[in-house]
Design brief:
- The protein has helices at about 5-20, 35-40, 65-75, 95-100, 120-125, 140-155, 165-170, 195-205, 220-230, 235-240, 245-250; strands at about 45-50, 55, 60, 80-85, 110, 130-135, 155-160, 180, 210-215, 230-235.
- The protein has about 260 residues and is α/β, with parallel strands linked by helices.
- It has a single domain (about 5-20, about 35-250), classed as Aldolase class I (TIM Barrel).
- The longest helix has 17 residues, at about 5-20.
């Protein structure tokens, strides 16, 4: 039967022929929106605010929310970048969501998907992404390096996601500038913030900027990963369901003790 991640990857494979059939402009001039540059000068926790309608673990989160409306609120309340889920089958997102968001904000936009082929990177670029996600657990080391280099050649930044030391070993082969520690195990979808605490020292040794992802709901949660060395956080469900979005941003924008 396989894990949840296995099932997602199998579905991704079936989508590639459709994506290859799309007509892409390729090479259209665009301005550079760098999230890495923001991290390099950070004196407060940098926030990647995510638009996520649903997930395999939670089911529907906020399925009818308008991506442009949410994007403009994220930008207004202090997001440093925005993540858009473009997977349809498991997260009810789309590349159309990313295109819509690109039209209304100037923040760096992360295309959050399960990338296994360069065509997905091409489509993400066409839709307006500034960053893409590569998940170490979903890729062989050679695949990860190939996709990383392909994205960089398109002047895209890459967030390489890890969950354990084996993932970090694979990720390190690409010499990434940006590593995300996912507190959620994509094979079981269980969440534990100690994942960031345990892996952060090893990530910091690589010299990469560190993002903590998943399960961040409170000031105490953010302080835990900040103290471990995270310079940024990726937050989805907490923002998608917040009764007072402005106040939630204010609370999670924690000062960093030192500029990394």
């Amino acid at each position: 039967m396989g894990t949840i991640l296995d099932r997602i990857i199998e579905v991704k494979k079936t989508e590639l022929d459709y994506l290859r059939g799309l007509e892409l402009a390729n090479g259209v001039p665009r301005s550079k929106r760098s999230f890495i540059e923001k991290l390099a000068h950070a004196n407060e926790m940098k926030i990647i605010a995510e638009f996520k309608r649903a997930s395999p673990s939670k089911g529907d989160i906020n399925p009818h929310l308008n991506p442009q409306d949410q994007a403009q609120l994220y930008a207004q309340y202090g997001a440093d970048a925005m993540s858009v889920l473009t997977d349809t089958s498991f997260f009810k997102g789309s590349f159309a969501d990313l295109q819509a968001v690109r039209k209304v904000i100037d923040l760096p936009i992360l295309c959050k998907d399960f990338m296994i082929d360069p065509i997905q990177i091409d489509v993400a670029y066409e839709a307006g992404a500034d960053l893409i996600l590569l998940i170490a657990a979903a890729l062989e080391q050679s695949q990860l390096v190939e996709l990383y280099q392909y994205a960089e050649a398109k002047d895209l930044e890459v967030l390489v996601e890890i969950h354990d030391e084996d993932d970090l070993k694979k990720a390190s082969a690409a010499k990434p500038k940006l590593i995300g520690i996912n507190n959620r195990n994509l094979k079981t979808f269980e969440v534990n913030l100690s994942c960031t605490e345990n892996l952060a020292p090893l990530v910091k040794e690589t010299g990469a900027h560190l993002i903590s992802e998943s399960g961040l709901k409170s000031v105490a949660d953010v302080d835990r990963v900040k103290d471990a060395g995270a310079q940024g956080i990726l937050v989805g469900e907490t923002f998608m369901t917040a009764p007072n979005l402005k106040e939630t941003f204010r609370q999670l924008k924690r000062p960093l003790r030192t500029v990394q």
